[in-house]
UniProtKB/TrEMBL annotation:
Protein name: peroxidase
Species assigned in the record: Salix udensis
Record-linked CDD domains: secretory_peroxidase
Keywords: Calcium, Disulfide bond, Heme, Hydrogen peroxide, Iron, Metal-binding, Oxidoreductase, Peroxidase, Secreted
Single GO BP term: response to oxidative stress
Length: 229
């Protein structure tokens, strides 16, 4: 899949899913209009995020993953940041209007902006989320790196998400990296057979294997988008 197409898929994923079902209260596009004096909250965030993106394009992968991890566990409530958020977007909106904009909304707006900047589609984000006050490690129910497709479907279904939602959201894996430690068993010792996973394309397994040697002491990374491997 082309990067643009993958991003478009992701943008559509966020439009159709937008994790709306997990959030509290009536969300609306432009919730902060008129709530921050004359300041335009979304424009403030866009300014900070644009500068950050051009300093470090890996911001897109970091934010996408952050939003998924925030929203999947207990809805988009910023519980992933319960120890406090000290990034520049938060500082900028707090300077404009203290205590008005939730961290959960900041994550959602900033992710939307950075997806757009990286060549993906643009989608409207509803705002008006309140931040949660609870963050408990044992409640974290994120799908693990070794789960099968049926297990992933079940994990998404538990959160009210369909297979189509899941496929669209997984378009996020068109950016970013994965550590070799997550795939090394499939490359060299699938289910303790001493051989690669037979369901893998041998050509791909070879390329990944050269980047992820069996006894490496350093945990290298590979591109999630196999087109760039
Ligand atoms: C079945 C569901 C999923 C599983 C099992 C999964 C697993 C993983 C794993 C193992 C990595 C590599 C992490 C590392 O090596 O440090 C990763 C990276 C990533 N995931 Fe997922 N993921 C899932 C769904 C999603 C969804 C729904 C999104 C966003 C909408 C997402 C966004 C990302 C991004 C952007 C990265 C790259 C992070 C970076 O390079 O900084 N993932 N994921």
């Amino acid at each position: 899949m082309k990067v643009e197409a993958a991003f478009l898929t992701l943008a559509l994923g966020f439009i159709s899913v937008n994790f709306g079902g997990f959030c509290y209260g009536a969300l609306q596009v432009g919730f902060y209009r008129g709530k921050c004096g004359f300041a335009d909250v979304e424009a403030i965030v866009a300014g900070v995020i644009t500068a950050q993106f051009f300093r470090d394009p890996s911001t897109v992968a970091a934010l996408l993953r952050l939003q998924f991890h925030d929203c999947f566990v207990n809805g988009c409530d910023a519980s992933i940041l319960v120890d406090g958020i000290s990034n520049q977007a938060k500082i900028a909106v707090e300077n404009a209007c203290p205590g008005v904009v939730s961290c959960a909304d900041l994550i959602a707006i900033a992710t939307r902006d950075v997806v757009f900047l990286s060549g993906g589609g643009r989608y409207d984000v509803q705002t008006g989320r309140r931040d949660g006050l609870v963050s408990v490690a044992k409640n974290v129910s994120l799908p693990g790196p070794a789960i099968s497709v049926p297990e992933a479907i079940a994990a998404f279904s538990d959160k009210g998400l369909t297979v189509t939602d899941m496929v669209l959201l997984l378009g996020a894996h068109s950016v970013g990296f994965a550590h070799c430690s997550f795939i090394r068993d499939r490359l060299f010792n699938f289910e303790n057979t001493g051989r690669p996973d037979p369901s893998m394309d041998p050509f791909l397994a070879n390329i990944l294997g050269s980047r992820c040697p069996p006894f490496a002491t350093v945990d290298n990374t590979v591109n999630l988008d196999q087109k760039f491997i």
